[in-house]
Amino acid sequence: MIDDYAIEREDRPGHGRYVIRLPGGLEAEMTFRKIGATVIAIDHTYTPPEFRGRDIAFRLIERGIADARRDGIKIKPECSYAVAQFRRHPDWADLLA
């Protein structure tokens, strides 16, 4: 079950990602670039085809939203999936950069 997989956050200078390690050595990820001290741009989400349709990418975005709220960070959605999710969730509008 996907709910059993942990979401890990990896931070590097200038960028980072959220990742779920899946069976078979596969990974689902959401990557971001840091734009200044208080803004990130979500620039890519990916779920391997055999794991699509299970809300895995949404779980990655939700974790990014929670971290942004906690840390006082704004988000610039750039990848099509992130843009669509921000449109579907007007309650996230306060986080838009």
From TrEMBL:
Domain of life: Bacteria
Residue ranges of coiled coil: none
InterPro entries: Acyl_CoA_acyltransferase, Gcn5-rel_NAT, GNAT_YJDJ
Classification via Pfam families: Acetyltransf_CG
SUPFAM superfamilies: Acyl-CoA N-acyltransferases (Nat) (SSF55729)
Family annotation (Gene3D superfamilies): 3.40.630.30
Occurrences of domain N-acetyltransferase (ranges): 10-97
PANTHER family referenced in this protein's UniProt entry, alphabetically: PROTEIN NATD1
UniProt name for this protein: N-acetyltransferase
